[in-house]
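Reopening this ticket.

The earlier resolution said the output was attached, but the attachment link was broken on my side. Pasting everything inline this time so it's all in one place.
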Amino acid sequence: MLKIYPLLLALVFLLNLPLLSEETTPEFRALWVTRFEWPDLDPEICRQNIIKIFDDMEQANFNVALFQVRGAAEVLYPSEIEPWSQLVGAKDPGFDPLEFAIGEAHKRGMELHAYINPIPLYLWSKYQAPPPKTNPPHLYYTHGPESEDSWVCCDETGKIMGPVEYHYLSIGIPEVQSYLRKVIRDLVKRYSFDGLHLDRIRYPGKNFSHDPVSRKRFLGKGNPNRKDWGDWQREQMNKFVNDVYAEVKKEKPDLTVSCAAWGIYNRYHIPGYYDFSSGFHHYFQDTWSWIENGSMDLLIPMIYWNIPEPKPNYNELLVDFIRGVGKQRVAGGQRMYGEWPVKENIEEIRFSRDKEVYGHAIFSYSSAKEKNAFHLLREGVYAQKADVPSWPEASSGALLGKVVDQEGKPVVDAWVKIHSLGETKPSNNAFKKAWTSASDGRFAFLQISPQQVRIEVVYQGEKTLFPPLKIEKGKVQEFTCAISTREEQGFLHIFEPKADELIKKEKIHLLGRTSPGGKVLVNGKEVDVYPTGVFAYDNIPLKRGKNSIVVTAFIEGEELTRHLTVLRDKDSSSQKNLKEEKKELSLEEVIWENYQHRVVAATEDKTPITWGTHSVRLGGPFLSEVPEGTHLQVVGEKKNHYKIRFGESIFGWVSKKDVKALPPSTPTPSAHFTYCIISGEENYDKVEIPLSSPVAYSVSTGLENTLHLDFFNTHHATTWLSHKMTAQVVKTVSAEQKSDGWFRLHIPIKSKQIWGYWLEKEEEKLTLYIKHPPTLSEESIFKGLVFALEAGHGGEMNGAVGLMGTKEKDINFTAVELLQAELEALGAKTILVRVGDTQPSLRERVDIAIKGQADFYVSLHANAASSEKGFLRVSGTSTYYKHLHCNKLAQYIYKELLGLGWKEFGVVGNFNYRPLLNTRMVSVLVEQAFMSHPYDESRLLDQQYQKEQAKAIIRGMEMFLQEMKTQ
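Inline output:
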């Protein structure tokens, strides 16, 4: 027995080696300590609470306290800016709790990160009175919901928000940003804590904030990057974080800046999360960009869910954050409150270690104390102490600037950019955008590689360039930009052409923006100002040399004028001709060879065969899409394509990458058509054809409701065409040899409308299915019909971007949601083939519609055209279809859309958009209007117009269905 003990001890030691090694690795082990867990009206109890908290944390080997000292515009440290918190009686407790807590943390070898809520104004409750009157006064009284100068968020109607737990400040108001930075700057300057931790750094919800200041800035001086509404609000939060970071690092370069991020960054990143709220979409919190742009050191996503199903899951969301920002910029935020076992935290800690993230944080102290977590952690995953990981040495610098007028007063909403003087093509994000100056004139640019830069400030149409400035590694360079200004309440800016731009054309096109409702003259001629404030003027003639353009806006009695100088160089038509000549000479010569006995096979299903090798936008048109294994006879080649012989007079082209060569002994493809059987089942008729040879085939719609089923490398050897009485929609079928090698079946359809068809190949049989007409209800013609609705683009595919930053994908989705509501109100069933801001492939979208047995596929897009020939050149609405049987629906919808006052762009047939190639249902695409035209863009942004558009599409569908009902 005695001999066994040493062996057991050695075994225990060996089994624990990996764990001990893992735990001594540097790891961020943080505990949130909220303002509700340590303050007390009795100062001595308050002190003892702080001591007890750090004793407990030390016992459990935590190394970071996220210690809250500001909740809702009241603080737990002495401040000349904000009042003492009501949690300590709204008065000085006689000692500095924050200084005391820092000392208690540091004497135990722990870090303290000052945890604050920047944006909440006041914790609301219908049973809670407003905050007490104090000196300094609470922000509730100076800028609260009932003040004359409210900074509180507003809903979509412009009404000051009701409570969402807190009243929130609107970060789109420049004074809010300046005030909050002042509070943070004061805190950072005065205390020696180790980090700054920001919580509730988000908007209160997706319906906020439509306060008057934010709306005015969005439509004017506050939107230099021409963002749409959602992106603009994210940009306001980004600017605030950006400027805070620069100011913090200027004061304390080694301070860690972190934030409590919403636990789901983007609900469309992971299947199964579409119905949950996400930081990016619901709270305008783009935390990934904060890391990318260098305005945050560490994200602590609040992933307050467990690992086991159902969703959400800690493991999936942590991995998503790692994917977005890298493992060393993430610490997993875990809950411990409520019905939550500590063993789940232990599993999440182990998972986090396995993924090698920076560490983790647990919410919060009182829950850990209640559940004896300090002991359980110390006995398990926190058995050994660990250092907090260090940050790598900075490789870039930053610029912290201020814009002031000639009297030294700060200028708000000046547009600031920086230009690189050290790199020809700088990759830094800092060089890719403009920031606005805040109400205290502040702006900042981060992550600038060491080099010379030049600052550009644009204000009231005037551009000022400043002398070169040297950016050094690891330093925040300060600079004050003094500019000449004049008082203007309205807004007028010319986006194109640029001032002093060298032009080689005879004419230019002007694009600008002013305050909505203003009147604008360009060289004395009045131009239309659209509801977005955008105006345009096309085809302004230019003479050689200097050209002066005068733009004047009249806004509520104020007159604003911009003088634009444009330089025209010599005519470039000769250069253009030279380029075209070079392009013509560079055309590749076609190479032909003898391929009589060469045969290839398609390597994938739906391998496209095109009529030529020319490039066609969207792909196609296709001669055929052949299944895998189809044999093709090669008779020539051109670059990356083979020329295929289908018959004496039919040739097509296939990409070399889509086929594989077969042995030289393989016979050339050949088949003979002998018979077919026409029959019917409950939902469709079918035409069954024996097909023993792997030849190519194709089906298409012809005139007068006829389907053409073509076979290639095939000759007519028909014995019989058997037509059974069960067939309901197929009339008499006939066969024809169109030419040598090209055989066709003519399949006429009885009904007025072909409702769908498709081919299926099974071993040595090919079957064409033809859909029966749907039953149209007497009660409601839409009842029971299934509509697959597609909002074009999505995810990373924005589609067209409007003149003022409007993203097509968002316009499309809004239109689809309104159309969906109208259809469902009429008794129809709907399928969204693109859910939210997802990015399914075009094939996946069609597959979703097929799986849902849709009767119709309706795709909504918004058009765009190049501004090369003018901003006002192309406008209007249009509809599109591919196959002839879809033409009638496209015509009806188009007619109703024209009734909304649009210019004609037409009904476009033979359109090769992938979902329209689908033949299983009636498929149309609506190009609502042109994003590239200022009037069209403004209408598409109008919610009332979008509702009218949905009703017009419904009317077109109804007229189509009524005609079909008479068949």
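Reporter confirms the inline version is readable. The first strand starts at residue 28 and ends at 33. The two ends are 96 Å apart (CA to CA).
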